[in-house]
Amino acid sequence: DTGVSQDPRHKITKRGQNVTFRCDPISEHNRLYWYRQTLGQGPEFLTYFQNEAQLEKSRLLSDRFSAERPKGSFSTLEIQRTEQGDSAMYLCASSLGWAGAGTDTQYFGPGTRLTVL
Amino acid sequence: GQQVMQIPQYQHVQEGEDFTTYCNSSTTLSNIQWYKQRPGGHPVFLIQLVKSGEVKKQKRLTFQFGEAKKNSSLHITATQTTDVGTYFCAGAGGTSYGKLTFGQGTILTVHP
After folding, report:
1. CA of residue A17 relative to chain centroid, distance
2. Within an 8 Å CB–CB cutoff, is residue B29 touching chain A?
3. Are residues B43 and A43, on separate chains, in Cβ contact within 8 Å?
4. Distance from the Cα of residue A10 to its chain's centroid
5. Cα separation of A77 and B66, whole Å?
6. Is the peptide bond between B112 and the residue preceding it cis, with omega within 30 degrees of 0?
């Protein structure tokens, strides 16, 4: 399967714990995005990378959230001191992206469902 | 900030009936993308519209982008049970080329 993969698919944690999610984009896709989706809502943008550079962060992304893409391939999203309000599906997407392309087609992974007890 | 509104929130149809969902943006978009999400699944890309007034068809699905590039619609002719799911529009615009702003989605239920 050459699509976007995410790990783990499900995560249950206790309030106050730290969690880390991983996303592997489609090979050769330069752009990688993180979104959060709660029940009954559309995905909400969190942040995106062009290669290893983090180009934009949403105001939704509090100081407890950090994302990295150190080598321009896979990415990690860490949530520190989790709160019950962090419970959601965390979606990763990737796109080809090239200079001047604007927004190109984003392909989504299966998501990581986080439950904070 | 940019907002994308989508109506209706829910639509129940009998198999064979048509279905339309509408999307409106608070700002002019550079392009709009449509996604389908099955229950328990993730968003799957359907199409991207870029040009003002653009119309694209995929079999029974017709997508339109408004002249002002602020609204869009998806029309499905003669729905089938396989069309069940949530349809999202997602707009890109302004100076934020990477960010998609999603609508709330329209949940389509098709009764056989």
Report:
1. 18
2. no
3. yes
4. 14
5. 36
6. no
How buried is A37 (Cβ within 10 angstroms: 0-12 exposed, 13-18 middle, 19+ buried)? buried
Cβ–Cβ of B90/A42 closer than 8 Å? yes
Query: Which pLDDT tens digit goes with each residue over A38-74?
Result: 998 999 999 999 999 998 888 878 899 999 999 889 9
State the nearest Cα–Cα gap between A45 and chain B, in angstroms. 7
Tens of pLDDT along B26-83?
Answer: 999 988 999 999 998 999 999 999 899 999 999 999 999 999 999 999 999 999 999 9
With an 8 Å Cβ cutoff, are A108 and B43 in contact?
yes
- B11 interfacial to chain A (CB closer than 8 Å): no
B66 close contact with A: CB closer than 8 A? no
**C-alpha distance from B22 to closest chain A C-alpha (Å):** 15
Residue whose structure tokens are 């105001």: A59
Edge-to-edge strand ranges of the sheet holding A75-79: A5-7, A19-24, A75-79, A65-68
